[in-house]
Structure formats: C-alpha cells, structure tokens
Amino acid sequence: MRNILLVLSGPSGVGKGTIVNYLLEEDKSLVKSVSCTTRAPREGEEDGREYFFISEQEFRNRIMEHDFLEYDEHFGNFYGTPRSFVERQLKDHSVILEIDVVGALNAKRLMPEETVLVMIAPPSMEELEKRLSGRGSESEEDRKARLQRVRYELEQAHLYDYVLVNEESKITKTKILEIIRKEKEKHI
Ligand code: 5GP
C-alpha cells in the first residue's frame, strides 16, 4: 500500500477542522501537516496545533530558504506548508493538508503521484453564512471577504478528485476514510 498526500479544501466555515479531527481520531496512521501562518491566533487556537503562528519577517525568510512546499496569501496573511515535515512523514504515513484551492493545485503539480484532492462543499450558502457568523471571530469586513472567496473556491471543484457535500461531519469523515483506503490501494 502506498502513502498519499490527502489535500482537503473548502471554504472557511465549512467544517474542515472538525472533519480532520475525526479523521485523526479514527485512523491513527494519518498525520496532519500543521501550516505556518502570519495571521493572529483565534480564540482557542494553539501555536503548533492549528498553525505555527510566525511573524511576516520569519515567513519571508523561510520562503527564501525554500522551506515551504507551497504557500499563498489570503486576506492579507501568508499561509504555507512546511516541506521537510511533509516529505519526512510521507515515508511512513499518509499526510493530511488542509489548504486552499491554489495551494492544493500547487501540491498536485509538485507531487502528482501522491496527491489526492478532496473538496468539502457546504450544503448551501445560507448554511455557510450561518456557520461563519456563529463563529464570531472575524470582523464584518473580513467575513464578507471570506464569503466572496467561497464562490471562487467552489467553482474550482471540477479540478478536484472528489467533491463531498458536508451535511454531517461524521458522515463526511466516513466517506473520506473510504477514499483514503481506496487511494492507498491504487498502484501508480
Ligand atoms: P483560516 O484563516 O480560516 O484558518 O484559513 C484561511 C485559508 O487559508 C483557508 O482556505 C485555509 O485552507 C488556507 N490555508 C491554511 N493553511 C494553508 C497553507 O499551508 N497553504 C495554503 N495555500 N493555504 C492554507
């Protein structure tokens, strides 16, 4: 069986974080790559768990040192996937990346054989709006920018290997475990 780089994308607020936690709980052989970001931590987020929170200067230094497999800018902040972690872990594990569409397509370009792209879509825009305002961690302006981005992200779904509508996180988790099992058995 091979190890895969499972890339999960989907708009902010769609529930990726919850799904990833379920996946890690259920399949102990999976590891999640923790990205670096220059955005400030949200309430309840911990350095090294959701992200490594670093300064813009440090981020720029690490770009120069080719430390990121891919990186991108969203809403004025940088986000990047640590290259050495992913390459090291892939020797023994399948690795989950929770990143946006641009990053996902870059990962596929850089590691076409290992990368499996899964898009998580909201049941409806109304539902997504409700979830985003429920989170209450962003300003009105930031929330609007994120909602605008949603349409763009969902339009890219046809570039993905799988698209799942997240009605219920536990059901989506089960579907993803099935995708992982199937993909690991493929001979490429
Ligand atoms: P948030 O600020 O809501 O945690 O994330 C904003 C966006 O950045 C999300 O679409 C998320 O998937 C994306 N993101 C998180 N980490 C990375 C990364 O390492 N690379 C890229 N390209 N996007 C990321």
Brief description of this entry?
The protein is of the alpha/beta class and about 190 residues long.
Overview features:
single chain; 188 residues; alpha/beta; Rossmann fold; 5-stranded parallel β-sheet; 4-stranded mixed β-sheet; 7 helices; 9 strands; 23% strand; globular; binds guanosine-5'-monophosphate
Q: Helices and strands, in N-to-C order?
A: EHEEEHEEHEHEHHEH
In the CATH scheme, the class would be: Alpha Beta
Fraction of residues in H or I helices: 40-55%
Number of separate structural domains: 1
Number of strands: 9
Write the CATH homologous superfamily.
P-loop containing nucleotide triphosphate hydrolases
| Alpha-carbon Rg, integer | 16 Å
Largest sheet: 5 strands, parallel
User: What is the strand arrangement across the widest sheet?
Assistant: 2-7-1-8-9
Spans of at least 5 consecutive residues with low confidence: none
* Reported CATH architecture: 3-Layer(aba) Sandwich
What is the element layout, followed by pairings?
Elements: E1 5-9, H1 16-26, E2 30-32, E3 35-37, E4 51-53, H2 56-64, E5 68-74, E6 77-82, H3 83-89, E7 94-98, H4 101-110, E8 115-121, H5 125-135, H6 140-155, E9 162-165, H7 169-185
Parallel strand pairs: 1-7, 1-8, 2-7, 3-4, 8-9
Antiparallel strand pairs: 3-6, 5-6
Helix pairs in contact: 1-7
The protein binds guanosine-5'-monophosphate.
Guanosine-5'-monophosphate (5GP) is lined by residues 12, 35, 39, 70-72, 74, 79-81, 98-100, 102-103.
